[in-house]
Every structure is written in structure tokens, then in C-alpha cells.
């Protein structure tokens, strides 16, 4: 069965370190998204991609970067982790846009920056 | 920036009761989605509504999209403990699959 996976599921790191969170989907979806979820803020969009070599900034992109070298993967990198980036991160994918689209979410990565 | 406000933020009810949660905005959305999220998991899509005034039913859950496509409601009839979770609404804009999420309603159904 097609799926979307994230790794690691839990990560503790220190301020200033570079961290990469992996997202892999086997739906063959063109669209992939990264969100962070914090209490009181719901889900906020960090970066998104509409296909290979395409990346775009979302609402809260500062301090994060992504790259899309193939259809299946969209890794999220925190260049220099900060305590404000402690959060739960969700990756999502969807088919090409068609009247609102559908999104399939991964299980999430809980990141703690000390 | 399009904003979605969900109310109430928290709701605790007894099993068998009915409830309604709301999702409101001053912006028009091309579609609106509702998700349920369990602790430690990602959101799971429940429904997408795209037409103003549209009503969709999913067993005991009834979803309505406002006529002006600015708001939506989720009504649960005879709530069960299995309905416990975080309910999120998300509005779709006109640019690709960009979604704006509300802050969520945390529902607890007690036996």
C-alpha cells in the first residue's frame, strides 16, 4: 500500500546544530508540504513543492530549507536549530490541484531543541 | 493572510450528547476540509466541501459549508468516546493545494 513516512519520529538536538527531517511518500504525488504544529497555532506551512526541482516558501519559512531531487522525498533542514523551532513537524502530500485537493499526512516528527 | 477561527477551542461532553463546532473566516475559500487528529499521529482527512451551502454526512457527523464559503460547521450526533480528538478545519485558496488551518477544537467525550 502507498504511504507517507517520516523519520526520525523523535529527535532531541542542541541549539545551533543542523538537523534534517526526512519525508518519503510512495503515492507518486507531485505536491509535498511541510507543516509545524504548535499549541494554539494549529498547523502552519513551512515549505512546499509542486514537483522535482520546485520549492516554495510558506508562512513560517525562516530558518528552514528544503530540496526536491526526486518525486518521493522532501527533506526539511534546519540550518542552525533554535529553541523556537521545538515543535511537531508534519509532512504531507497530495495529487495535483483539483478544486481544493486532498492531503495525506505523515505521522509527524517531534523535535526538541535544547 | 487568510485566517480561520475555530470555536470552541475545548469541549468536554458526555457520551450520547450532540455537539457543534465552528470554523469561521472573513475570507472566501474555494474549499474547506475537516480533519481529526489523534495524539501522536498526523491529521486524517474526514471530508472536503467545495460548494456554498453544501452539506455532507459521514455517519453521525454532518458537515456544512456556508453559503458565502467563509465558514463551516461540524455537528456530531450522539457522541461516542471514539470521537475524542482534535478537530481541525482547513481552507483551500486558489493557489494550488495551499491550505490555511484553524487552531483546532479539542473534543473529549466522557463515558
What gap, in angstroms, lies between the N and C termini of chain A?
A: 37 Å
- Tell me roughly what share of residues is in helical segments of chain A: under 10%
Order of helices and strands of chain B: EEEEEEEEEEE
Q: What's the quaternary structure here?
A: heterodimer
Biggest contact: A-B, 26 and 26 residues
Task: Walk me through this protein's architecture.
- The complex is a heterodimer of chains A (114) and B (111).
- Chain A is mainly β and 114 residues long.
- Chain A has no helices and eleven strands.
- In chain A, strand 5 and strand 6 form a beta hairpin.
- The model of chain A has no long low-confidence stretch (mean pLDDT 91).
- In chain B, strands 2, 4, 5, 9, 10 and 11 form a six-stranded mixed β-sheet that branches. A five-stranded antiparallel β-sheet of chain B has the order 1-3-8-7-6, with no helix packed on it.
- The model of chain B has no long low-confidence stretch (mean pLDDT 91).
- Chain B has no helices and eleven strands.
- The termini of chain B are far apart.
- Chain B has strands spanning 5-7, 10-14, 19-24, 31-37, 44-49, 55-58, 61-65, 71-76, 85-92, 99-101, 105-110.
- With 111 residues, chain B is mostly beta strands.
- The interface between A and B is medium-sized, with 26 and 26 residues.
Compile the SSE list and pairings.
The complex is a heterodimer of chains A (114) and B (111).
Chain A: E1 4-7, E2 10-13, E3 19-25, E4 31-38, E5 42-51, E6 54-57, E7 64-66, E8 76-78, E9 87-94, E10 104-105, E11 109-113
Parallel strand pairs in A: 2-11
Antiparallel strand pairs in A: 1-3, 3-8, 4-5, 4-9, 5-6, 7-8, 9-10, 9-11
Chain B: E1 5-7, E2 10-14, E3 19-24, E4 31-37, E5 44-49, E6 55-58, E7 61-65, E8 71-76, E9 85-92, E10 99-101, E11 105-110
Parallel strand pairs in B: 2-11
Antiparallel strand pairs in B: 1-3, 3-8, 4-5, 4-9, 6-7, 7-8, 9-10, 9-11
